Amino acid sequence: MNAHADTLTETIVLELSDVTGVDPLDLPPLYDAVDVDALQQLFDRGDDIEVEFAIAGCEITVRGRDDVTVTPTSGRTPATLGADGEADAARTAFQD
């Protein structure tokens, strides 16, 4: 886990960067896969929820501010995306 992240969004981006080996600035924008404001609001409420979505060839699972798991789903990383930087299709699941 990245101790220097100030927000949930930063935590997700830094974890994604660690797993993919791609600089955070070179990753597809997180907002292409998930509404980052809504995500932050969900976890600010303190509900016991889990959110999953896919981006940059990885499955992201968020269970809380300090509980973010990034799992590669294929060999496809941002470095192998098309020249336009098109990100993987997003899938979001809300579970109680």
UniProtKB/TrEMBL annotation:
<dbReference type="InterPro" id="IPR040624">
    <property type="entry name" value="HalOD1"/>
</dbReference>
<protein>
    <recommendedName>
        <fullName>Halobacterial output domain-containing protein</fullName>
    </recommendedName>
</protein>
<feature type="region of interest" description="Disordered">
    <location>
        <begin position="69"/>
        <end position="96"/>
    </location>
</feature>
<dbReference type="Pfam" id="PF18545">
    <property type="entry name" value="HalOD1"/>
</dbReference>
<feature type="domain" description="Halobacterial output">
    <location>
        <begin position="5"/>
        <end position="72"/>
    </location>
</feature>
